[in-house]
Design goal:
The complex is a heterodimer of chains A (203) and B (660). By secondary structure, chain A is mainly alpha-helical. Helix content of chain A is 79%, strand content 0%. Chain A has a single domain, classed as Cytochrome c oxidase, subunit III, four-helix bundle (Four Helix Bundle (Hemerythrin (Met), subunit A), Up-down Bundle). In chain A, helix 1 packs antiparallel against helix 5, helix 3 runs antiparallel to helix 6 and helix 4 packs antiparallel against helix 5. Chain B is an all-alpha fold and 660 residues long. Classes of the chains: A mainly alpha (203), B mainly alpha (660).
Chain lengths: 203, 660
Amino acid sequence: MASSSVPKGTPNFPEYQTEEGRLKIFGFWVFLAAEVVLFSTLFATYLVLADRTAGGPTGKDLFEVKDFMIETMLLLTSSFTCGLATLEMRKGNKKGVFIWMITTLLLGAGFLGMEISEFVAYVNEGATLQTSAFLSGFFVLVGTHGLHVTVGIIWISLVLIQVAQRGLTPTTCRKLFIGGLYWHFLDVVWIFIFTAVYLTGLI
Amino acid sequence: MDLFNFKMPEQFIIMNNPLIIGAWISIILASVGIVFFVTKYKKWGYLWREWFTTVDHKKIGVMYILAALLMLFRGGFDAILMRTQLALPDMKVLDAQHYNEIFTTHGTIMILFMAMPFIIGLMNVGVPLQIGARDVAFPVLNAVSFWLFFVGAMVFNLSFVIGGSPDAGWTNYVPLSGSELTPGVGINYYLWGLQIAGIGTLATGINFFVTILKMRAPGMTLLRMPMFTWSTLVTSVIIIFAFPVLTITLALLTFDRLFGAHFFTIDAGGMPMMWANLFWIWGHPEVYIVILPAFGIFSDVISTFARKRLFGYHAMVISMVAISGLSFVVWVHHFFTMGNGPWINSIFSITTMLIAVPTGVKVFNWLFTMYKGRIETPAPMLWSLAFIPNFLIGGVTGVMLASAPADYQYHNSYFLVSHFHYVLIGGTVFGCMAGLYYWWPKIFDFKLNERISKWAFWIFIVGFNVCFLPMYLVGLQGMPRRIYTYKAEMGWTMWNFVQTIGAYLMGIGFILIVWAIIYSIRHEKRDRSGDPWHGRTLEWAIPSPPPHYNFSRMPSRITSADPYWDAKKRGESMFDENEPLKPIHMPNNDGMPIVMSGFMFIAGFGFVFEWLLIAFIGLLGVIGTMVWRSFKDYDADHYVQVEEIERDQAELQASLEGRS
């Protein structure tokens, strides 16, 4: 971990200024590749089991267009505001980072709240993890995404505390940037859930 | 889901068998003994500072290898028990249930808790030194990987004394492993032992991928990397794409068993075949994860002891990449007989046979590397030489098994058992041994005793063939795998008895390997100069053992794939001695990995017994330690000052002069 000189072609952004920052950002991209495989496995499982409702409710019976459209909008907007926060971070504007990141987290929390109430409603209608293979696949796929969002909210909040304590240093910027990568990734996964689970389920 | 439901399994403490009572006694005696001696000699502080909190890749590698040898003992003992039970018809050493448990733990431990950590340990020791790095990219994460593996192994091994072992085979097929047919904690042990260790392995894959791509010394282009480093890079890619599948597969069965989901159940739309598919989508790449690094070791060892450049460097790289790609498209050949259509079986037959092509290329390259070489045969080279014919037997029978129609005859028989032992022992275990003997005098300042090691080698090799060649024959005579006894009328008695003799010979070979280590620690000649084998690659250009920062100066003259060999021929050093020493940036030791893994143990134990309160307390601990660490990682490194480097160099000089 010796060289502190910045290699040619490295973007001139605070998060890339240290060797550690560059390694960790690259490593996180690789981790996201592993996450893609993780979600692919869940998607494959869900799609294989999607028609196996065992006489229980189907997607068509359960999914509410209005609800999952709002969820989608909340998450997509949060990805946009997260991008704005990264831009502010690169300008060195701490206040801007806080405004946009907190907006991001609030939108994320809104999404999460809707998802939880969606799950509760399904369970109240008698559609649980134990009802059918379709619902097992649904709850675990969508739930794993929801768990990731929860982790993202807690994680980014903790990073924001560190930014408040230490300001926008190369280290805190790296943490913010990686948190942002994670958040955008969750958005991408949701787009696939939107298509493969909800839209397809309505057909 | 009830947080406060602390249900007890049928038996909590297992005491129903003299063997297990013996295990209890030895576990308690060993633990008390270790605690007593460490306390008596006041070594707790030393252990904590130098080992438990270390982030040094060399020490982590040593701990991996030690744990792997321990697991080799456990898995080997299982094997000896099975072979004793099968030595003659109608033996009563093990009953059916106990036999099921033992072949399950044998397979699981040997693959996940022996082969994997052995290979990863050698990667830790070898790769950073081979590429001229001072540590891996993420040293703390590396320690996390080790401790998660270790905790996973401990959770898994606890099963045979507390609560009962898994008994559905290492492939853990549903519906047998579902909660209906196998209630109790055994299968949960399997799920959580593997889950915890698997997360650690995934982190290792990411770590080495980044390390190799981003931390090579100046001049070391991708096509100048030693073959072991290449194999580690390719293996890391396979880990990154295969292990998340295992994570999910285990999690889904956990949902089925603990929370009543229907992924793999027979009722409510579940699909048992999903397990077979998902398991092998991970499982087949997994066997290449353990074989490719062995290929890398053989390549380095063979070119070192043939005193020749590796033949066909580019072909070696291309064939490894080809194998890694093919490894993801052959998984169905593990269940040709489970009702796939002829089209599917044909396609997977062909992809499977294709693997023989790049593998054959590699075998020819090893042979051509030795052709007209000045071959020497110390222990690492012996294991490499033995690998070629033995692996060939495993490979050829593999092609036989790849033929789907013929597989209906071979499958589920001892023919298959023999095939995969020939590739896994003949490939992976021989590779681990070659690597252990090869790098031992790099990790420490002495070689392993040649005479004892040669005895160990020959006894093991003879025992291996005596044990496994007859398995092909009894397999063709129809003896199925995983049966706990057989009748004399079947006509399998003679070959089974021969196999058992072979297994005991292998056991003696293992004991001799351990004896060689103990003997060499006490008696072998010390030499810190660092190049005992007349090596070709970077790791031999630095002293043995290397200083904790590996390279006091960065190597500056890497112009080929054998940089040190070429430098020696030119009469040069790898390092520019005129360059002034500079302070070296190094990571601090860290207690987070072991503490976090301790909480992971609590969580794993809680989930195994379905005591959810304890499981969640453990998980909270895991999260808490990570958060705590995130807030204090602003002072996680330090500089090694020039004075310290000079002191190390002076000490080395004194030791080298004392020798001559």
